[in-house]
Specification:
Number of helices: 23
Structural class: mainly alpha
Distance between the termini: 102 Å
Strand content: under 5%
Shape: rod-shaped
Radius of gyration: 67 Å
């Protein structure tokens, strides 16, 4: 079997194995393929980020002043925020210490970094420490922008804490209510309405127990996500909550599309606190795309372990075994199908081999039959050629016989004519004699009987008729005679053709040509002596002959 045929069978197997997967739109398939390529380039993205961080650490360690170290510490925290929680906490605390030395009176900026500290505690599952930091902040001294960040951080801390305490229903409800209250506070009058907080209305509507999205206008946030080209944390957050909106709106393709976009933004900035990919894997698992769901969850587990996100590790550990078992079951099902295909392929290969063997045998038989047919055709062609040659020979023989028959008919007609002429001549001569006899003209009768001219005239007429007959019946008579005669005895064909008269030697040859072979008969017919006939026969033949008795 050819390689192309084998590839076709493998492709068919893959298509059958994926029959349970819900059909996705081309747009969704394209965004998932792009996500796959970004995740495949994870090591390269990590290498670039590590190089950037090493450069910043070197600049931080070599900074000559607290102000420069403070600037580098801020940048290092931004790099580590969603990459390494331990390092992020280190540089958050370092920034706070440097700020207390360089700008102790800037309460608003210092509170903002306390919020960063609380955010990292929340990520690490240190909820009590996070809430302690939050409770220590005086919100009345905060600007509108920092106050909005405070409400967001507090909402995030209580929300994650409620999930961690899900088995304790009373505490779970208490922290969930506080999380919703802090989140709703972000939209209270006096707080900023910048692009940074466009996702809040979607979060408020989709996280409620009785979800109501009928009054939401998502055109602005959708336009912001669709036009986003830079991979930032804010773009990932906006895309994530837009996907959650479409989840409530029961538009699965849009849900998958925007959740995948959020995962792409997170992967491009090497965000290890990556909720979007976790939820995307869950939705793909429900749609039957086990391969992607399993791979995405494995990626999530590795990132959560590296980031030290306790809640994410626990959440993933709950769903990963289910997906892994389903994935293994699907692999086993594919293996069984593949085994069946292999057996079918083996059977088909055997059938194909038998068919090829039969074809080879039949081809050899056909080749032998063709060779036999070729030999038979050659023999038939030779037989046909011989038949055609025989036909040509027969036609020539027929033509010769026809000519001979014509000659015989001509001779016969000439004989009849000549006999009739001589009978008529004898009758005329008898009448002439009878007339003389009746008239008692005895003397005149004697004169007539003694006159040889009459016989000479008759012979002369006979010679002339005989010559014309011979030349007409045998057009090549003179050439045949010259071919048989000796050189001195040959005659001019042109002279004969002009006079239409033969000599005695030619007349003797003509009678022999007509089948008269006896010299006595020839002499009697031509009124010559036997010696004359014999001499002319010897000269014409080219060899002397004995006289006939």
């Amino acid at each position: 079997m050819t390689a192309s045929a084998l590839r076709s069978l493998c492709l068919l197997c893959a298509l059958w194995a994926c029959a349970a997967v819900h059909a996705a739109s081309p747009q969704v398939e394209a965004i998932l393929a792009r996500l796959d390529s970004v995740l495949a380039a994870h090591d390269e993205l990590v290498e670039k980020k590590e190089m950037r961080i090493d450069h910043m650490r070197h600049a931080f360690n070599s900074a000559p002043s607290d102000a420069e170290r403070l600037a580098m510490s801020r940048r290092l925290y931004d790099e580590y925020t969603v990459y390494d929680s331990d390092s992020a906490l280190l540089y958050a605390l370092t920034t706070i210490r440097l700020m207390e030395r360089t700008a102790p009176g800037d309460y608003d900026d210092l509170a903002a970094w306390r919020l960063n500290e609380a955010f990292i505690y929340t990520v690490q599952g240190r909820f009590e420490d996070a809430l302690a930091v939050l409770n220590a902040i005086d919100t009345s001294r905060l600007s509108a922008e920092v106050k909005a960040r405070y409400f967001y951080t507090a909402s995030y801390a209580h929300s994650m804490y409620s999930m961690y305490l899900h088995d304790n229903h009373e505490q779970w409800r208490d922290h969930l209510a506080k999380a919703n209250a802090y989140r709703d506070s972000i939209c209270t009058p006096g707080l900023p309405r910048s692009e940074e907080w466009m996702w809040v209305p979607l979060s408020m509507a989709t996280d409620k127990e009785h979800k109501d999205i009928s009054g939401l206008d998502v055109s602005a946030i959708r336009q912001s996500v669709d036009n986003a080209t830079e991979p930032t944390r804010l773009n990932a957050i906006n895309s994530y909550w837009l996907a959650r909106y479409y989840e409530v709106a029961e538009e699965p393709d849009s849900l998958i599309y925007y959740m995948a976009r959020a995962a792409i933004f997170d992967a491009q900035i090497v965000n290890r606190e990556i909720a979007a990919l976790h939820e995307l894997a869950t939705h793909l698992f429900d749609r039957g795309d086990l391969n992607r769901a399993y791979n995405y969850l494995l990626y999530d587990v590795r990132q959560a372990n590296l980031y030290h996100n306790r809640y994410r590790i626990v959440a993933l550990s709950n769903i990963l075994p289910e997906v892994r078992d389903a994935y293994r079951a699907e692999i086993e099902k594919r293996d069984r199908r593949l085994s069946a295909f292999v057996w079918v392929l083996a059977a088909l290969s055997i059938v194909l081999a038998v068919m090829i063997l039969v074809i080879v045998i039949e081809f050899r038989r056909l080749r032998n039959t063709r060779n036999l047919l070729k030999i038979a055709n050659d023999e038939l062609s030779a037989s046909i050629a011989q038949r055609d040659k025989a036909i040509d020979s027969l036609e020539q023989s027929n033509a010769s016989l026809s000519d001979a028959n014509k000659q015989k008919l001509g001779i016969l007609a000439y004989t009849f004519k000549l006999t009739t002429q001589y009978i008529n001549a004898l009758e005329d001569y008898r009448k002439k004699l009878l007339k003389r006899y009746r008239a008692r003209q005895i003397d005149e009768l004697g004169v007539l009987l003694n006159n040889p001219d009459l016989i000479k005239e008759q012979y002369q007429e006979f010679y002339e008729s005989f010559d014309r007959m011979v030349l007409s019946i045998f057009p090549d008579f003179v050439e045949e005679y010259n071919a048989a005669a000796a050189a001195p005895d040959r005659v001019s064909a042109a002279a004969i053709a002009r006079t239409r008269t033969l000599n005695t030697r030619l007349r003797i040859h003509a009678l022999r040509r007509l089948g008269v072979t006896k010299s006595a008969d020839i002499a009697a017919m031509l009124n010559v002596s036997i010696r004359t006939v014999y001499n002319n026969r010897s000269n014409a033949a080219g060899t002397p002959e004995e006289p006939e008795n």
